[in-house]
Amino acid sequence: MSDITTVILAAGNSTRFKASKSKLVYPLCGLPIVSHIFNTAKKISGKNILIVCNDKNKEELELILNTSKLVVQKKQKGTADAIEQVKKYVKSKNILILFGDTPLVEVKDIRKLVNKFKTSKAKASLIAFNTLKPHGYGRLLLNNKYVEEIVEQINLKPEQKKINLCNSGILIANTKLLFDNLKNIKENKIKKERYLPDICKIFSKKNIPINYIECKEETMLGINTLEDFNVVQNILQKKYIKNFIKNGVNFLKPNTCYLSYDTKIEPTVTIESNVTIKNNTQIKKGTIIKSNSYLEGSLIEENCIIGPSARIRPVSFIGMNSKIGNFVEIKNSKIGKHVAISHLSYVGDTILGNKVNIGAGTITCNYDGKKKQKTIIEDNVFVGSNSSLVAPLIIKKNSKIGAGSVITKNIPNNSLALERSDLKILRNKRSK
Ligand code: UD1
Ligand code: CA
User: Fold this and answer.
1) What is the pTM of this model?
2) Cα distance between residue 309 and residue 293, in whole Å
3) What ranges do the domains of the chain cover?
């Protein structure tokens, strides 16, 4: 919509969040809090987005939101002051204001707001929501169907504390009218900040109509504290998992699992309990992820069995019909088809062929103290239990490694490699 510039306010101090850096760069399901609303804003006004940031979070936000114009608000003098910083950059007829700390907002709700704004005589429209826990939010005072005033928590009179209709912070307005009146917003006496919602009182006194639409509370929640963060994260997790279940993914205990925003799972996959899936992991048809497994930045092909208690680290690829069992860690490795690594192993910086069997307790010794070294294990190799494979190393096709070996040289194909001292049996010599 080319007649709208979206402004995202992201200059707050995050005081209530009690973190060492801006709450807005904190990952929410793997994506910075601010990126959630940024991605939504892109769907409304394309590249026409301005971010108001502060001196401290500018660099980080620039890295995260690399396509946007950032404007610094030097002192955090409130949301009205923050909007004033972008005055000279807003060229479009209308301005849409979003808060960086409300990540669950849905595109369809903003479209509904824009539609209401454009089809009514109002010069500003906002999104409100009803909640049983209004504490902390600005409350709407109405005159018929129009907004007369928004009263912030600290200014509420006792009887106003019962109002459940709250300001979401999302506002669209005629650009000129907003900036013409913004300067009349005075500093709040208690907080020493200038509040953007005070624009409502100024407009209504001048008979400039402001209306509102009401949206679901769940999508309007703001993150001020870590407690809020937790509530929002649980809502997002439930949403992701619900969508997968609808699509045919079977979660045995959905409430115990964690997914990131970019997790991809195909229908007919089963996910057991306490599974964590992060960093752009993809799981293909028919695979089972058993309990307590931790998967990051990897692609798991069709019909694999992973876990219980397996760890798959970035960047790994697990080929079709392979089995990665309990207490197995795979890191930066490509595993072929029909491979079995069933128990207690570490496979790192390795390329493994098809139909390879890795016995229990096998370790690829990939670190020589200075550098990570590669291991290549070709098709049909059988590695006996408790072997140490010292990289760099190539074990060629169809070879077998005897249990308990320490392999330090390349092994040719069709060979048996053993590294073992002779077993001595001394009769009747058992120490007493
Ligand atoms: C704000 C609204 C409140 C609404 C609630 C919804 C005000 C005064 N109050 O309260 O009516 O119910 O959001 O979640 O607007 N920010 C700046 N510069 C500043 C201050 C804040 O950029 O000087 C940014 C923050 O980074 C944040 C947003 O503006 O993204 C909102 O500020 P915050 O302090 O969180 O306001 P709330 O108290 O949540
Ligand atoms: Ca807030």
Assistant:
1) 0.92
2) 4
3) 4-220, 226-417
